[in-house]
Amino acid sequence: MLHSEYIREADNAISHVKSKVRYRGLNTLGGLYLRHPLENPLKTIARLASKALGAVRSARYGGSCDAGDYIKETARLAIETHTGNCSELSSVAFLFLNARHIRPIEYFKVQRGNWGHAFVILNRDGDIPISKFKDWSPTAVLCDPLYDRYGEAGWLETWYPRMFPLKDTDLWLRFVE
Q1: Calpha distance 75→88 (Å, rounded)
Q2: CA proximity to 121, closest of 136, 111, 135, 132
Q3: Burial per residue of 37-61, b for 16 or more beta-carbon CB atoms within 10 angstroms, e otherwise
Q4: Per-residue tens of pLDDT for the chain, all 177 residues
Q5: How much is the pTM?
């Protein structure tokens, strides 16, 4: 695939997430107040339902599951409750891209102290270590449905400076041909 095709697929994934999950990012100011401001009571109910259902499902896994199951379950939760944070929204995007056989795709879940973020990366050269961001970012494409961002992965340093340097453990799941 061409670089421009990966960018188009990231945009398609964000559109798909928007069509499936009405209340996105209720753990951010933008999600709480800017998106659908007249629906605040509905957003609150949806997020509480999501938190409760998510807790029940997590208990079934004993609080731990592999990355593939985590992505499937969080995507299902987002679609069923019509709400999601970055992890849930990125899971919906990841499964959408996977179903379209877009390769390579990666699910990143980064935690730095009390700050964390999840997103999808397309077309990263897996031979380049995660920590060598400057080497892999020019050809990789970001898909971040929480912020409706897609495009050059090189912008990650500007958008999310707290997550650098990246670590191998930040990459949760990678699918290649």
Answers
A1: 5
A2: 136
A3: eeeeeebeebbeebeeebeeebeee
A4: 999 999 999 999 999 999 999 888 766 655 555 666 677 778 778 888 888 888 888 888 776 788 999 999 999 999 999 999 999 999 999 999 999 999 999 999 999 999 899 999 999 999 999 999 999 999 999 999 999 999 999 999 999 999 999 999 999 999 998
A5: 0.90
